[in-house]
Specification:
heterodimer, A: mainly alpha, about 0% strand, elongated, B: mainly alpha, 3 helical TM bundles of succinate and fumarate reductases, 5 helices, globular
Chain lengths: ~140, ~120
């Protein structure tokens, strides 16, 4: 173990195809979601969540900062929670999460669907599903 | 393409991959759990009606909160471990230690969260 050397190829030697790009996207979107969730969490605490919301409500807000997630709490004024900043954060989080999640489902499906034709169909369905969930999610966030 | 498998399901289930295998399985359960939950949650919020209200009522139940928080927190912390090890491959030498650190981070956060959720549910 001690003399194990990294055998990874440089990017130019390896070549970049779609699967490699998605491999990288999965990791970078994870970091992106960390940033957005921590941003939402800090924002909630600054707006007074500590004394006005219970733990589950704060988590619900952090993982998706839309106003419907704080409506049933003791927050006195919803105005700061409905600001454009939060709609933008929620939209970015939604798009990252849907793309990350749908690609994850494709990776799982590839473990069980092994024919070229089957994988093609799985990818086509996943793209339709991704577009549908992104659209519906954005509609809910922007109209709530 | 076309992968040939000569392994039956029962053999697969008896595979003992230990710690790394456990994180792989839990990562997958957490991922599928979130995908199903968030899909139904978005559709329920979009469609509304009695079905939507029922779905969202189930999600506010404390037992479901514990389950979904397990999915989210484990997937997030395990995902961060994978991301760090993959983006800095030299650290892969210490991947077993990384899994121990992962549990040391996950268990206290999840344990305290479960206590808080149950405390709130019983009217604390």
């Amino acid at each position: 173990m001690s003399n194990a050397k990294s055998r990874s190829l440089s990017l130019s030697q390896r070549g970049m195809n779609f699967e490699t790009l998605m491999w990288l996207f999965t990791r970078l979107s994870a970091l992106g979601m960390y940033v957005l969730i921590i941003f939402g969490l800090i924002g909630a605490l600054i707006m007074g969540a500590r004394n006005q919301m219970n733990f589950a409500d704060v988590m619900r807000w952090a993982f998706m900062p839309t106003v419907t997630h704080v409506e049933n709490t003791d927050v006195p004024d919803l105005a700061p929670w409905i600001a454009h900043l939060w709609k933008l954060t929620a939209s970015a989080l939604l798009l990252l999460a849907v793309a990350h999640g749908v690609h994850g489902l494709v990776v799982i499906a590839d473990d069980y669907i092994v024919t070229a034709r089957g994988r093609q169909i799985a990818r086509l369905l996943s793209i339709v599903f991704m577009l549908a969930m992104s659209g519906i999610g954005l509609y809910i966030i922007l109209t709530s | 393409m076309g992968l040939k498998r000569n392994v039956s399901l029962s053999t697969g289930l008896r595979y003992k991959g230990q710690g790394p295998m456990l994180t792989f399985v839990l990562h997958r359960i957490g991922g599928i759990g979130m995908a199903v939950f968030i899909t139904i949650h978005i559709l329920a919020s979009f469609l509304g009606g009695d079905g939507g209200k029922l779905a969202n009522a189930i999600y506010e139940n404390w037992a479901f909160q514990i389950f979904i928080f397990f999915c989210v927190l484990f997937h997030a912390i395990n995902g961060l471990r994978i991301t760090i090890l993959d983006l800095w491959p030299k650290l892969l030498e210490h991947h077993r230690e990384a899994i121990w650190i992962e549990w040391a981070v996950f268990l206290p956060i999840f344990g305290i969260s479960v206590l808080v959720i149950i405390n709130t549910a019983v009217g604390g």
